[in-house]
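Milestone 3.1: sequence recovery, worked example.
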């Protein structure tokens, strides 16, 4: 009753908006209270610098849009006050709450929310994090959301509230006062056309490496290529996305929310439809790889969510930078703890690495041109820790391409043919685990007991390998998971001797695990 009386007198008004915590949206209320006294404009509720600077943008935008800005004491509270407020999308709800409090604008209908950055001339600029915010509005029962025009395609992906694209503050004011209308945005629909990705038909030879990537794509396994310079390690890795299964709608939404928070979407392509392929340089920092900062933001491993993280020249990365990936590789998420906040980001990715066998790159080459001492080779390889290697499923030697392979005229198998086999294997896994996104590379102990039983011959082979190579329990599990994927590619119901033997070969042959550890 008190609130209603204040609203009628034009002293108080509240407007619904949204905020972002990590990559999750949350409802926020912009409360404006105008009182007598010396003119002033205060924003409270844990605002960051960008939110505090909204005072000047809002004041200028109101005047250039033909609206009267009150010369009174203005206090705006962004509730809940316990939630950190960051970003420029609070400009529009702050402005609307002030104009409604003074009576310059009619009160919006119930169920309306506003977000957007205002420029000094009254235009609305796009903001980041729109998709998670509109999804939060959908959960809260909001029925209409007013957003900057460039953000409208992204906002419609929430498939919930009616989205109104706003060009200027003046246009929005006319709409709220009933003198004009803004047409609702049509839901954005993705094009069916698949992007032209690098194709496996361009790779000459290297059949073993191609087979390894096919298995990795089918089961979501991690891969390490070891070979001399120019053998095709990077070329092969960059073609992995062309054989990965298509993303589901839910997977696309998960990845798009991350890219939305980072401001990496465009109005023409607001939905991430291709599985990400991230290849950070070896100079990347810890925060750049896993996420962080004063206001924690996602890192490369989160930007690779549901896709591929490619680390070229693996030993050139700082060892501590590599080792912080160990926990995300197991848990498929990363938790960043700071004084200001603790945030958890998704990080379910395939790790694909490439490295030379030594510093000069030619250790073990038949040409004998390696100039590294045994100690130098050991020091180079020891930059990659044993616990990280233990989390790699497939260790592949990629030899130098022979001259005859470069001169051959036969046509290599295209990615489309490989992808058909990968899709068939994933269908088997979907039937096995249900439509919950589970795949062989993420099987837990319960699933492995149910679907990865070894017969007597396989158990004997596994015991020999376990004792001879000094395997760990983790590497044992990873070998069995790879064998399960090989069996799926072959259409076999159970893991056979040949499937397990091939999985062991991919783990141990050539530059094996123990040899890499020096």
């Amino acid at each position: 009753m008190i609130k209603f009386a204040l609203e009628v007198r034009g002293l108080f008004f509240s407007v619904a908006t949204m905020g972002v915590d990590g990559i999750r949206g949350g409802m926020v209320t912009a409360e404006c209270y105008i009182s007598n006294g010396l003119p002033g404009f205060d924003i409270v509720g844990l605002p960051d610098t960008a939110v505090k600077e909204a005072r000047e943008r809002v004041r200028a935008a109101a005047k250039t849009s033909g609206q009267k800005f009150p010369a009174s004491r203005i206090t705006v509270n962004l509730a809940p006050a316990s939630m950190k407020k960051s970003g420029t999308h609070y400009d529009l709800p702050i402005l609307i709450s002030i104009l409604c409090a003074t009576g310059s604008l009619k009160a919006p209908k119930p169920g309306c929310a506003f977000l957007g950055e205002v420029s000094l001339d009254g235009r609305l600029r796009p903001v980041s994090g729109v998709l998670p915010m509109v999804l939060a509005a959908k959960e809260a029962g909001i029925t209409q959301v007013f957003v900057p025009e460039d953000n409208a395609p992204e906002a419609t992906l929430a498939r919930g509230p009616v989205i109104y694209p706003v060009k200027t503050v003046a246009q929005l004011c006319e709409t709220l006062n009933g003198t004009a209308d803004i047409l609702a945005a049509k839901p954005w629909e993705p094009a069916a056309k698949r992007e032209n990705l690098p194709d496996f038909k361009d790779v000459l030879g290297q059949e073993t490496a191609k087979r390894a990537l096919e298995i990795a794509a089918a089961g979501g396994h991690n891969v390490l290529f070891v070979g001399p310079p120019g053998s095709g390690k990077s070329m092969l890795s960059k073609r992995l996305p062309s054989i990965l299964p298509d993303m589901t709608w839910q997977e696309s939404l998960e990845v798009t929310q991350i890219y939305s928070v980072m401001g990496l979407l465009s109005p023409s392509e607001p939905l991430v439809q291709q599985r990400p392929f991230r290849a950070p340089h070896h100079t990347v920092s810890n925060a750049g790889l896993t996420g962080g900062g004063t206001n924690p933001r996602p890192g490369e491993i989160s930007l690779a969510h549901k896709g591929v993280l490619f680390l070229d020249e693996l030993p050139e990365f700082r060892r501590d930078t590599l080792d912080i990936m160990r926990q995300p590789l197991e848990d498929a998420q990363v938790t960043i703890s700071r004084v200001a906040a603790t945030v958890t980001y998704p990080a379910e990715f395939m790790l694909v690495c490439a490295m030379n066998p030594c510093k000069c790159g030619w250790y073990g080459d038949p040409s004998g041109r390696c100039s590294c001492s045994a100690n130098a080779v050991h020091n180079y390889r020891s930059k990659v820790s044993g616990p990280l290697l233990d989390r790699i499923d497939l260790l592949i030697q990629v030899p130098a391409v022979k001259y005859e392979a470069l001169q051959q005229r036969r046509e290599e198998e295209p990615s489309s043919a490989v992808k058909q086999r990968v899709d068939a294997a994933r269908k088997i896994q979907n039937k096995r685990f249900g439509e919950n996104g589970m795949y062989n590379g993420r099987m837990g102990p319960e699933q492995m007991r149910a679907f990865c039983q070894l017969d007597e011959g396989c158990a004997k082979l596994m015991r020999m390998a376990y004792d001879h190579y000094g395997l760990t329990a983790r590497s044992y599990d990873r070998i069995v998971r790879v064998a399960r994927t090989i069996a799926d590619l072959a259409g076999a119901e159970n893991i056979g001797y040949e499937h397990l033997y091939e999985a062991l070969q991919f783990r141990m042959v050539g530059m094996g695990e123990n040899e890499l550890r020096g």
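The chain has two domains: 2-176, 200-516. The radius of gyration is 28 Å.
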